[in-house]
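Structure (tokenized):
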């Protein structure tokens, strides 16, 4: 049984509210090859995600997705975010056994949205931010493919993604991505609340932070 001390809880909360840490690579086993092979036949069914960012005329091009958990498999936006009746396993869960089992057992509570997010060759995700205040554990990104020529920046710093990586992402910081390759880039994004209530996840975070600081 995992036990978190008061000092560990304090550090975890400090990390979560950090206005200096843009992302944190997590020490987790992620079967990215098996998950990629499972979803590969469905990638042509990905639907467009965001054509612009809140009317500021920054154009996203080639950004697409599929929803594993959310309102519907084809609704990639923040559909009624915060309303638990829209947080359900979609039809894709019955088609993707390996993926679904992995994320059902991933140690966070109150899973909200889980989405495959694809960036086509030549695609661009314009600079934007998703939160008004720092929260390092607002989203966890899992990398399935990351072709040479793809560049992801947070706070104008290059994030060194590799296939198989999982990173907590502080979406308070502006971020952007360019796929300058001829291949698709594919991620999975997990949004969850109540992370601090799962001591297993807290231990993963603290161990990861200690190794990288």
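Design, position by position:
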């Amino acid at each position: 049984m995992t036990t978190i001390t008061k000092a560990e809880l304090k550090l975890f909360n400090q990390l979560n509210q950090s206005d200096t840490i843009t992302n944190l690579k997590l020490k987790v086993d992620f079967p990215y090859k098996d998950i990629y092979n499972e979803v590969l036949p469905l990638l042509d069914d990905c639907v467009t995600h965001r054509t612009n960012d809140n009317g500021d005329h920054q154009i996203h091009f080639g950004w697409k997705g599929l929803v594993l958990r959310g309102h519907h498999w084809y609704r990639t936006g923040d559909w009624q975010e915060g309303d638990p009746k829209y947080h359900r396993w979609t039809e894709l869960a019955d088609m993707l056994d390996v993926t679904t089992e992995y994320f059902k057992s991933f140690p966070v509570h109150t899973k909200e949205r889980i989405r495959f997010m694809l960036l086509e060759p030549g695609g661009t995700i314009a600079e934007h931010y998703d939160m008004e205040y720092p929260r390092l554990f607002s989203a966890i990104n899992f990398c399935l493919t990351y072709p040479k020529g793809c560049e992801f920046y947070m706070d104008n710093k290059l994030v060194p993604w590799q296939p198989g990586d999982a990173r907590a992402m502080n979406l308070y910081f502006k971020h952007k991505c360019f796929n300058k390759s001829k291949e698709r880039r594919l991620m999975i994004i997990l949004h969850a609340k109540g992370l601090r209530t799962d001591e297993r996840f807290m231990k993963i975070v603290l161990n990861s932070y200690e190794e990288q600081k």
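Reviewer-requested clarification: The CA atoms of residues 48 and 64 lie 4 Å apart. The longest strand covers residues 111-128.
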